[in-house]
Write a structure and sequence with these properties.
single chain, mainly alpha, 16 helices
Length: 406
Amino acid sequence: MQYIQQGERRYWQANTSLFAGGFVTFALLYCTQPLLPVFSEEFGVSPTVASLSVSFSTATLAIAIVFASQLAERLGRKTLMSWSLLLSSLLAFFIVLVPQFQLLLAIRLLQGFFLAGFPAIAMAYIGEEYHPKSIITAMGLYVSGTAIGGMTGRILIGVITDLADWRWAVVILALLSLASAFWFWRYLPEPTHTRPHRFTLSESMKTYSMHLLNPRLLPLFLLAFLFMGSFVTMFNYLTYRLVLPPFSLSQSLVGWIFIIYLLGTVSSNTMGLVRKRFGDHWTLLINISMMFIGIQLTMVEHLWIVILGLGCFTFGFFGSHSTASSLVGARAEDHKAHASSLYLLFYYLGSSIIGAGGGWFWSQFGWRGIGGLLSILQVCSLLLLLLMLRFHKKNIRSKNKFEKMT
């Protein structure tokens, strides 16, 4: 069976299906993010506690994603991804019934657990089923789906919360997610290049250890932790900042700020062209620098400059993520699903740990504290990138030396 490539009907079906799956994953995973100030008011919880409605989901997703590859070998990749999207969409309806914040957190824990069946398997699917020349474009479109999902979920939640109630907003988002899950199940082509291998737990652990000890992959995992931790922290506490003076925006207007996510679709697709011209390391350097500059601009107390900074930061994040995630698939010679799972484990652990920890910086130092934390994280990203570049050059020298000897 041929690989999926441009010009085929299967290419369109696969792209739209993965886009729909990415939409559901990010829309549901972060649907409570614009509601954090609402939760603080309605349930009487602090910003740090309210942020757990995001961190709990990403934490269980990060843990469960380690075992998703093994489960996919038993159930089949499309089957696992389809059930993941369906069950997490259905759980969204239960969120609106909770009378207490603790119950809401319990449902969010379960939702993160079920969502774990999609992201890593989707990345592995792209790496295995697409023609090598189409992988960069496909990964860009998949990341675009996550961007559109994140944006739509946040805007929809914000606007409907102002017009009616946050519970109605979640119900409408759940219906959209169900429709997207059905599209995914109906149109995603069955995988034909998966090499069946039923891993035991010990075999999986050995495979994960092998990837973690791979100096070509470990820096990418650590970058995922820093990228997503920065991104979630930025948007978690920006909602608090924008509803307070001097901005004093309504919930609807705060929701519309997330239209900036559209830059993510531009960035993730544009970076494929940038990589072809300048290479992977320069592409990551450009995007990390954009994130750093964007953070500094958000420190200014002028709404349009804050929005400009947020746009710069968002563009850099999605460019960094699409580049790093596709590099994992390219550099993992075997067991790509396990490598993708590890990337996403670090990715969502960053969301949970840094995202929740940012609440302390917000409570103690306000936005200056958040800006300082995020700036330090970008400096750490740059240091990791330098290590990657150094190792890459060392590898090239060793390879050239070996070729001369032979």
